[in-house]
Amino acid sequence: MDISGLPTPCYVVDEDKLIHNLTILKEIEETTGAKILLAQKAFSFFHSYPLIANYISGTTASGLYEARLGREEMKKENHVYAPAYKYSDMEELVRICDHIIFNSEMQYEQYHNMCKDNTSIGLRINPECSTQEGHEIYDPCSPGSRLGITPANFEKFLEKHDGRLPNDVDGLHFHTLCEQNSDALEITWKAVEEKFATSLSQIKWLNMGGGHHITRPDYDRELLKNLVVNIKQKYDIDVYLEPGEAIALNAGYFVTEVLDVVHNDIDVLILDGSAACHMPDVLEMPYRPPLQGAGLPNEKKHTYRLASATCLAGDVIGDYSFDHEVSVGDRLVFDDMAIYSMVKNNTFNGTPLPCLIYLKQNGEYEMVRKFGYEDFKNRLS
Ligand SMILES: *Cc1c(COP(=O)(O)O)cnc(C)c1O
To answer: Cα(182) to centroid of ligand 1, in Å?
Structure first.
């Protein structure tokens, strides 16, 4: 990959890698009949939506803006789920979404009559089955969670409706996983089947959310396929999966340039890329992003702390080691920067937004979007 001529900072989305992932997902759709949706909150690089549309069934959104984007740029099935909708947003959502998922009994009661005949209504459930440890911030089943209707609340809801799901509810939705394998889905499905048994025979579709790391090399796809096929057969329903990460996993890079090298016990590189502005998950998760050609601290000859040109003392990406000395003007390339990166960007410190570049399968770089001062100014007043 020749990055020497690219303006920095920039994100590069790799078409070849994207197609690799999409091919895996399409095969799952074809062999199981599952429908796969892009969860846009992870990856909204809509330049590639026409490509993605050739492989999977559509988009899902976290609210009005993403729903509009899916409708305008993907033009396939368009689902939406939010923990709560505003009335003013609902008017448009019922026009542009074919599936609307409510998070609570109250939201359903408030808005279900606004839905049109061609809008399919779903309810998000909370199976109270945590399968991830350590990341409570990413666990929708953690104690006190607001995400989804708990089994106890669901029972009360059914009682109010003569012991069954209201006729206009077509589907159930759960989302409980994060970067997980299909064994966690199997455990979760067992909990769903046990706790929501009576309703499963009344629905037309089940959406099993995201967090399935389907395109990761060690993901057990056979187990996923068996689960989907069994659920579809047993209940005669459609099954949806809405991964975000899996669609663009390892399909993007972040390229940044070294602006200065300072020394204070350790050698520190000051970059035009920022953890706080351009890769906030590094600070939020937190995690250490993979960097091409670099190792753990002291693994290679020259160790540096990678930090940014913002004023935030903690705007540090991590410590990395290199075979060679790093100098001003060198470029560094972080891997796996398509997901949860550009969607979270901000302009703190007046930091420029990175350009968006598409690396096409034929090896050409296409400049998709450049940002400037106006993009910073227009968000303020
Ligand atoms: C975040 C989220 C997704 C996508 O999750 P990934 O971890 O990116 O696969 C799907 N559905 C819902 C409801 C979500 O909140």
So the answer is: 15
